[in-house]
Amino acid sequence: MSKHAAGPEIQRMIDLIARLPGLGPRSARRVALFLLKRKDTLLRPLSEALMEAANSIEQCGQCGNYDTLQPCAVCRAVGRDDGLICVVEDVQDLWALERAGVFRGRYHVLGGVLSALDGVGPEDLTIGLLVERVRKQQPREVILALNATIDGQTTAHYVAEQLQEAGSDVTRLAHGVPVGGELDHLDEGTLATALRSRRTL
């Protein structure tokens, strides 16, 4: 379908869908047509859900998770171990650990990793908030559950250095996470092994 074959409203829809991760122009056209053919059963409910999400969901000011509550449901949950803070790169990693059901402490979402290539420095992440939180709450352990990429490892070392004077033990995930692997793509068993096998930095 050329841009001239679709009206401006449809083309805008295609252009926006194409901005989603893993979707190019061709995939976006297929998705748009799929939705348009199912206007009542899928397109309208989806648009309503997206509008509701845009109006009511925000990032938790405490951990960085997404929720309609402030703080989020995970932070408000009773019975979790306040002495453990698990630091993750993004919300999808928090969700992955929650799906696996292997961690019952608290979380802190950095919002990315340090990357000189992409121009991401410490000030672009929530590292400062993490250091402040650890100094204030004094958890017994901070677990760096960052992806096993070069940028992830660089970030882990930087965060560990920043937390040296905070008084908490700093550990990181060990066996089970392959180099170059991302937490969101790992199965629950691998995540459980990695979390149990964490080691001190």
Please count the beta strands (DSSP E, at least 2 residues each).
7
Computed structural class: alpha/beta
Q: Output the radius of gyration.
A: 20 Å
Fraction of residues in helix: 40-55%
Number of helix segments? 8
Kindly estimate the percentage of residues that lie in beta strands according to DSSP.
5-15%
CATH topology of the largest domain: Dna Topoisomerase Vi A Subunit, Chain: A, domain 2
Provide tags for this entry.
single chain, 201 residues, alpha/beta, Dna Topoisomerase Vi A Subunit, Chain: A, domain 2, 2 domains, five-stranded mixed β-sheet, two-stranded antiparallel sheet, elongated
Which SSEs are present, and which pair or pack?
Layout: H1 8-17, H2 25-37, H3 39-56, E1 58-59, E2 66-67, H4 73-76, E3 84-88, H5 91-100, E4 106-109, H6 127-137, E5 141-144, H7 150-162, E6 169-172, H8 188-196, E7 199-200
Parallel strand pairs: 3-4, 3-5, 5-6
Antiparallel strand pairs: 1-2, 6-7
Helix pairs in contact: 1-2, 5-8
